[in-house]
Prior knowledge:
single chain; mainly alpha
Amino acid sequence: MDTQLEQHLEKIMPEDIARTFESAYHVIQGNNEHMEDLLRHGGQLLRKASRRLTPTQMVLGIAVLAVGAVFVLTRYSDEISDAIEDFTDGDDNQQPAKDDKGPKNKQ
């Protein structure tokens, strides 16, 4: 009975992981059209993993991914903030030009 259940479960293929990371890469690069793909591929990967792993293994796996994301973000936080500043070019501090619509001297 156990072997039938194991064969019935969908296996996690390397392509599943590659598609999820590829979609995540596109979203991180700012291509938000791939957000739907990321959610679909990530959901499929999570569904397959949840059927094969125990709840404790799932929690530990997600925790490892979260810690990895925090390390990556802290390592590249300076580059990210520099990229944001370059993207905005300091436009936040500039005031719009005022029109001189005051009374004009009549001649």
